């Protein structure tokens, strides 16, 4: 089989703030920005990797989710326990310095992990956990 990752979805709570984080802080390019019924889906991705994208979506748009479930999702997002993204960079320290200089919410500074990687943790504006590893 020849399977690749095309896109993944991460919820957002404020499209403008999330757009600024992924575009301006992480340096991703905006590939699509779609509004419908007062909601926005924003597709971003790393420059030079057109086949891999992240769709920032309004969690309230998910069909079949009850109001109670939406409240739970919102609470989990705020704690960073609803969604997670794992990224890689060639220079973790430089990436971390950029995140820190742009006031990203730091969860963990660059650390050598016991499972063999060096990484750091931040949260995006919606609370989603983002771990960034030093590429080997």
Overview of the molecule:
The chain is an alpha/beta fold. It is built from three helices and eight strands. A four-stranded mixed sheet has the order 1-4-3-2, covered by helices on one side. The longest helix is centred in the middle third of the chain and has 13 residues. 20% of the residues are buried. The model has no long low-confidence stretch (mean pLDDT 93).
Which features does this protein show?
3 helices; 4-stranded mixed beta sheet; globular; single chain; alpha/beta; 136 residues
Instruction: Tell me about the largest β-sheet.
Output: 4 strands, mixed
Shape: globular
Instruction: Give, in spatial order, the strands making up the sheet with the most strands.
Output: 1-4-3-2
Count, helices = 3
Query: Assembly type of the shown chains?
Result: single chain
Radius of gyration: 15 Å
Q: Kindly estimate the percentage of residues that lie in beta strands according to DSSP.
A: 35-45%
Brief rundown of the structure:
The protein is built from three helices and eight strands. The chain is 25% helix and 38% strand.
Can you lay out the helices and strands and say which pair or pack?
Blueprint (H helix, E strand, L loop, with lengths): L6 E5 L3 H11 L3 E8 L2 E7 L7 E5 L9 H13 L4 E6 L2 H10 L3 E8 L5 E6 L5 E6 L2
Parallel strand pairs: 1-4, 5-8
Antiparallel strand pairs: 2-3, 3-4, 6-7, 7-8
């Amino acid at each position: 089989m020849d399977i690749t990752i095309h896109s993944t979805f991460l919820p957002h709570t404020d499209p403008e703030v999330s757009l600024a984080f992924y575009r301006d802080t992480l340096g991703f390019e905006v590939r699509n920005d779609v509004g419908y019924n007062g909601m926005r889906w924003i597709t971003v991705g790393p420059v030079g990797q057109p086949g891999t994208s992240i769709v920032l979506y309004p969690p309230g748009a998910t069909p079949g989710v009850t109001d109670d479930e939406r409240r739970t999702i919102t609470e989990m997002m705020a704690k960073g326990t609803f969604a997670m993204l794992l990224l890689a960079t060639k220079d973790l320290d430089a990436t971390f310095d950029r995140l820190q200089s742009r006031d990203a919410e730091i969860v963990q500074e660059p650390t050598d992990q016991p499972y063999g990687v060096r990484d750091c943790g931040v949260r995006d504006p919606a609370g989603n956990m983002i771990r960034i590893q030093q590429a080997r």
